[in-house]
Design brief:
Elements lengths: L1 E5 L16 E5 L6 E2 L6 E2 L8 E4 L2 H10 L3 E5 L26
Parallel strand pairs: 1-6
Antiparallel strand pairs: 1-2, 2-5, 3-4
Organism: Aureimonas altamirensis DSM 21988
Main location: membrane
InterPro entries: NADH_UbQ_FeS_4_mit-like (IPR006885), NDUFS4-like_sf (IPR038532)
Length: 101
C-alpha cells in the first residue's frame, strides 16, 4: 500500500491560508469501495483509508513513513505568486486603464 505525502490546496471558498502550511500523509485505497445492495450505502473494508496524519514539515512525514516501512510518494505543489493589488488602486487618478461604470 502506498501513502501519499502532500500539502493541501487553499480552500477555494475562502481567502485565508489556514491548514495549508502542514504536510498530510494519506493512504491510497487498497480495495475498491462497494455499494451495499439493500440500502445503497458505499462501504469499504480498508481501514487505512480513514487515517490522515499531519506533520509540520515534509521531512517529518518522510521520516515517519521510512521508520514504519510505508511506501510513499511525495507530491510537491508549486506555490503560485499572487500580485498584491489593493482595492483602492481601482480608483486611482493616474490609472493605466480608464475606469468606467
Amino acid at each position: 500500500m502506498v501513502a501519499r505525502i502532500y500539502r493541501p490546496a487553499r480552500n477555494a471558498m475562502q481567502s485565508g491560508k489556514a491548514r495549508t502550511r502542514v504536510w498530510i500523509l494519506d493512504f491510497e485505497p487498497a480495495k475498491p469501495k462497494v455499494v451495499e445492495p439493500l440500502m445503497g450505502y458505499t462501504s469499504s473494508g480498508d481501514m487505512r483509508q480513514q487515517v490522515r496524519l499531519t506533520f509540520d514539515t515534509r521531512e517529518q512525514a518522510v521520516e515517519y513513513a521510512e521508520r514504519n516501512g510505508i511506501a510513499y510518494e511525495v507530491e510537491d505543489t508549486p506555490r503560485i505568486a499572487r500580485s498584491r493589488v489593493s482595492y483602492s488602486d481601482n480608483f486611482k487618478y493616474d490609472r493605466v486603464q480608464p475606469w468606467t461604470h
